[in-house]
Amino acid sequence: MKNVEELEKELRANLTPTEYGELIERMAKTVEQTLKRPNIEISRLEEAEKALGLKLYECQRNYILYGDVICTNERCTGYTTAYCLKLLLTKGEPIKAWNFEEMHRLADGAHGRTYVDHFRRYLSDWYRFLKAKGVEVREVELTKQLDGYRPHTIIIDEYKF
Length: 161
Prior knowledge:
This protein is mainly alpha-helical. It has helices at 4-14, 17-35, 42-52, 58-66, 79-89, 100-106, 113-132, and strands at 95-96, 140-141, 143-146, 149-153. The chain is built from 7 helices and 4 strands, in the order αααααβααβββ. β3 (143-146) and β4 (149-153) form a beta hairpin. The radius of gyration is 21 Å and the shape is elongated.
C-alpha cells in the first residue's frame, strides 16, 4: 500500500497543476461535508420510516444521513420529504412554524409565499404525525404564546392515529 507522500507525488506527475488544484479542492469539500454531517443515527431514521409507513429512496437516505445532494430539488422527487425529515431528526433549536420569516428561510427553495405556506404545513404535519407515533423529533412551535394569548396559530387538520 502506498503512503500519502507517494500518492501525492504520483498525482502531481500525472495531473496538470490546475487539475491537481481542482482535485485538492474537491477533496477538501468532501472532508468539509463529512464534518458537517447531522447528528442522526440510522436507527432513528429507520424508526421514522416505520412510523410513517414508507420506505425512503437511497438518495433520500443519503441526503438525510450524510448531506449528499444526489436528489434533485424539483417537483415530485421526494426532496421536500427528505428535507423535512432531516430538519425534524436533526438536533437543534425549536423550529418556529408560526414565524413566516423563519419558514421562508428554512423552505427548500426560492419559491413564493404559497410554497412557504405549503412547506410550513407539510413540516408541521410530519412533526405532529411523528410525535404522535412516539418518534423523538426536534421541537416545532406551532403557536406563539404571548401572556397566554395565541395570536399566531397554524390551523392543521386533525389526523386519526
